[in-house]
Amino acid sequence: MKNKILLFWIIVALVIFSIAMIVIKPTKLGLDLVGGSRLVLEAQTTPTIAKITPEMMDSLQFAIENRVNKLGVAETVVQRQGEKRLVVEIPAVKDLNQAKKFLGETAELAFKKELKEGSGQWIDTGLTGNDLNRANLSTSSSGQWVVDLEFNDKGTKKFAELTQQLVGKPMAIFFNGELTSAPVIREAIIGGRAQISGGDNGFAYEEAKEMVDLLNAGALPVPAKIIEENTVGATLGADSIEKSKFAGMIGLGLVMIFMIAYYRLPGLIADIALVIYSLILFMLFKMIPVTLTLAGIAGFILSIGMAVDANILIFERTKEELRAGRTLFTAINAGFDRAFTSIFDSNMTTIITCIILYCLGTSIVKGFALTLALGVIVSMFSAITVTKNFMHLIFGTGELKYPAMFGLKKDEIGRAYTASETKREKAKFGVLD
Fold first, then answer.
1. How would you label 333-350 residue by residue, b for 16+ Cβ within 10 Å and e otherwise?
2. What percent of the chain is helix, strand and coil (3-state, nearest 5)?
3. Which of 26, 29, 27, 37 lies closest to 233, judged by CA?
4. Which of 98, 202, 290, 344 is 20 to 30 A from 49 via CA?
5. pLDDT tens over the chain, length 433 residues
6. Following DSSP, what letter does each residue of 28-80 receive, concatenated?
7. Rounded to whole angstroms, how far apart are CA atoms 350 and 361?
């Protein structure tokens, strides 16, 4: 009994923690709920790229994902569509034109030297943005915005050799084909760091920030063109959320009423466990975090039904044991034990299906699969641990004096166990008189 009381307080602590996390952490909503933008990009062939291969599309998807992450927009989805298209879904984006420009623009950084001193004609040195480790935004001693460059190992060696060759001469820095500055090299720079000041007038903050973002995102491996764009309004998303809440509350309410009406006191215990289940699952959604879409909410609601299904199996087994004449304590334990195999098998098949859907499905299907799988896992904990613990604490090891509490009639209860049989059953489950 002490272990069961300890488990009860652990469950209470878990519920308090879940409520705290639900209040503190924000809910991440998908494009269909919070609104945003949906762009379709198509890879383009060039004179040097005759055919778009799957490997090129993998590289393009990776590059686009990096660029979108640099935008700072959470939960953006980038997925393949057909042989040479990518679908980019950006929740809550406010500046669609900026997003389009960011996704489609190629960051080209080149360091050049004069072909002839004073000629103003520049030639490539072989040092480019591909040799960068990262770029950072900072300010100079005069308060102007500058871009700090940090080269990788290969770039550090190239930059040191180049600056050694150009001591006393200018080195031009071109960004996307435009000359940004051409400082005169005073001495060789061997530390692998450089700075772009933006010339005499310096950078505006927006210019420097855009350059940093593009340089960190890298160049696109193949050209890509935006061929389709759509927006989802926040009003539509808010309406979907309200309807989902209403549907969820109606469904949960009807299920809880059914459980009490049919299973009486155990049904009430199952309803309490169901509320605890919902709190724990929603806490996990926020902690992971899971992006909730309409499909994800559907998976959540479906998992509630599966959680109730586990309790129904347990209670029906318990009622069968009571009809067979077992004592209340042994009937409860036998009900849980004999229902566990059915619950485990059915839930495992659901989880396996969810894994397949998550691996092979689109973003919407992935959201449904993830929320359903998490719900099924938590439902097993809820049914097997929470419900069983509450049943033992409430009914203890006593006899079933009021069969109506289990939705049974007196004449449905079978013969009572003998004293020796009851003692053996209690010993089996570790209960001492």
1. bbbbeebbeebeeebeeb
2. 60, 20, 25
3. 37
4. 98
5. 677 888 889 999 999 999 999 999 988 887 777 778 888 999 988 877 889 998 889 888 888 877 776 655 556 778 888 889 998 888 777 667 766 766 766 667 889 999 887 777 899 898 988 888 888 999 988 888 989 999 999 999 999 999 999 999 999 998 878 888 888 888 899 989 998 887 667 788 888 887 887 787 766 778 888 888 887 776 666 777 788 788 888 888 888 999 999 888 889 999 999 999 999 999 999 998 887 888 888 888 888 888 888 888 898 898 888 888 888 888 888 889 989 888 899 889 999 999 999 888 776 788 888 899 999 999 888 888 899 888 888 886 666 777 888 878 777 776 544 444 555 555 655 555 5
6. PB-HHHH-EEEEEEEE---SS--S--HHHHHHHHHHHHHHHHHHT-TT-EEEE
7. 15
Amino acid, single-letter form, for residue 326: R
Which pair of tokens denotes residue 345?
């098998």
